Amino acid sequence: MQWIYLSPHLDDVALSCGGLVWEQTHSGLSASIWTICAGDPPDRPLSAFAQELHSRWATGPQASHLRRQEDIRSCSVLSAGYRHFPIPDCIYRYHPAGGDALYPTRQAIFGALHPAEDELVEQLSAELEHLLPPESSLVCPLTLGGHVDHQLTRRAAERLKIPVWYYADYPYAQEAESELATLERAGWERSLYAISPDALKAWEAAVAAHASQISTFWPDLQAMSRALQAYYARSGGIPLWKSPAKAG
Fold it and tell me: Reduced to 3 states, what is the DSSP secondary structure of residue 4?
């Protein structure tokens, strides 16, 4: 059995369930992290918002390349395989007809997936169907927080019509207790996985490998480690869910 984790960005699986991935790979299971939005930006001027993020990440225009290198190091920490899909991050995507940036602001990236990307959902789903090995368990984000790239990933996975496990998108999961409770009242199957102290350390190290992204959520690595430890202690493990329709 091979576990395939779909990561919208180059840090989402490490953030959300890196400790579980480490536990699986160190108990004889195979696990791979497939990052959906790992491609390079188009060769054109970037939006002001994208440039602002590059500045905060201290990556400059090499952001995508540097972030892929970070992900390779992170996956190595977890002893997990990796695959980088060529779809650019939403901040680099433009309307195929008008040419305007589809997501030019922070508000836009946490809004609805643009209708112009319906075809991208279909294409991604077809590619996933072609690439997924037989006898694999697929895990995708619940889309807590509502980021458009998380929506893209989930919609493509759910078109496959196979059982799908879901992980809680961290750190957005910290503010989603009521949403998760609603899922369970609706009959979603929840499985809680305890991890070892070594797995927790590896989880922290895997997140730390995504050095350019730490400042997005925390002032420093120490704060990140404390936050992960507190989140795990509060959760009592790393949960995965299945919807009632796909719990078979």
Answer: strand
φ/ψ of residue 170, rounded to 5:
-95, 140
Number of alpha carbons in the 13 Å side-chain half-sphere of residue 141 = 30
- Mean pLDDT of the 49-64 span: 95
Whether 247 shows a pLDDT value over 50: the answer reads no
Residue ranges of domains in the chain, CATH in brackets? 2-246 (3.40.50.10320)
Give just the sign of the alpha carbon dihedral 41, 47, 52, 55.
positive
Q: What is the reported pLDDT for 97?
A: 87
Distance CA 53, CA 70 (A): 17
The torsion angles phi and psi of 101, rounded to 5 degrees, stand at -60, 130
Mean pLDDT of 95-113: 94
Are the beta carbons of 225 and 204 closer than 8 angstroms?
A: yes
- Maximum pairwise Cα distance, the chain: 52
Cis peptide before 134 (omega within 30 of 0): no
Q: How far apart are alpha carbons 68 and 210 in whole angstroms?
A: 9
